[in-house]
Amino acid sequence: MEIVHEFTISMKQLENFEFEVRFDKEQYAPLRMDEPEPLGRDAAPNASRLLAAAVGNCLTASLLFCLRKARVETGAMETRVRVKLGRNERGRLRIAGVEVEIDPHFAPGEREKAGRCLELFEDFCVVTQSVREGIPVEVRVRE
User: Fold this and answer.
1) Cβ-contact 81, 70 below 8 angstroms
2) How far apart are alpha carbons 90 and 83 in whole angstroms?
3) Cis peptide before 136 (omega within 30 of 0)
4) For every one of its 143 residues, what pLDDT tens digit does the chain have, with 9 covering 90 and above?
5) Sign of CA dihedral 72, 74, 78, 82
6) Cβ-based neighbour number of residue 117 at 10 Å
């Protein structure tokens, strides 16, 4: 795959399992993350919740982009993401499934105009399609 852009974020442990995430642009506010009890204090969302938010946001934004381009009227869009956790054959906790429900609040008679967008929008969602296809992850631990 040809690389067309890259960015870097950084994380710093605050205490126990609570981390502060800093993004690559100074206008982005830092984000705190934590693990649920008993590991952490459950003071902030964990990585699974952020992945759910990323999938839901990406799909919603992709649909909104297409609908606006097609001049389809909607209300304020609402999205609900349900994540199912399960254990793999080795007993490790994994995300077993993600269900996304988007309500664009179509204006009367507008859903019919949205047909092509409803067929296409998922394929343009960077995060969802990357998760579906599997993302290569390289890990290094410094000495």
Assistant:
1) no
2) 20
3) no
4) 899 999 999 999 999 999 999 999 999 999 999 999 999 999 999 999 999 999 999 999 999 999 999 999 999 999 999 999 999 999 999 999 999 999 999 999 999 999 999 999 999 999 999 999 999 889 988 99
5) negative
6) 20
Q: Which residues are 97's β-sheet partners?
A: 84
Q: Where are the domains of the chain?
A: 1-45, 55-143
Tokens of 5: 């852009």
Q: Are 45 and 81 in contact (CB under 8 A)?
A: no
CATH architecture of 55-143: 2-Layer Sandwich (3.30)
- Look at phi and psi of residue 50 and say left if phi exceeds 0, alpha if psi is from -120 to 50, else beta: alpha
Contact 16, 33 (CB under 8 A): no
Nearest to 54 by CA among 95, 91, 6, 1: 95
Other Cβ atoms within 10 Å of 17 Cβ, number = 18
